[in-house]
Input
Amino acid sequence: MKRFLEFAFVSLVSVIITLQYTKHDNQPVDGGKPNSFQSNAGMIDTWKKDISESFDEAEIKIYNITPTPDVVGPHEDPAKCICKGSGVIRQGDGHTTPCPYHSKEFSKPLITLED
Output
């Protein structure tokens, strides 16, 4: 009988602890709907922008350096494009790939439609 009571007590405590840790808290995040990614997507973008600006400000104040802008990929404007208008993108490991905007290789349509 004593073993049965011990087993029942340990099982009850285990169930209570499990339920406590797996309990879903349906409190809204900053006024959004509970568990709704759609309502929080705008806030996430705002937070990301604020965090990026904070890191840039900290680099200026603490390290006394001007932060380098994030690496940008291909862009229609040659001045903003990572290839600088050359049509060739040099990758980190040294190999090159054609730029989708400025390479002559991509000037032809990729798909030819037949009549």
Remarks:
- Residues 37-63 form the longest helix (27 residues).
- The chain has a mean pLDDT of 78.
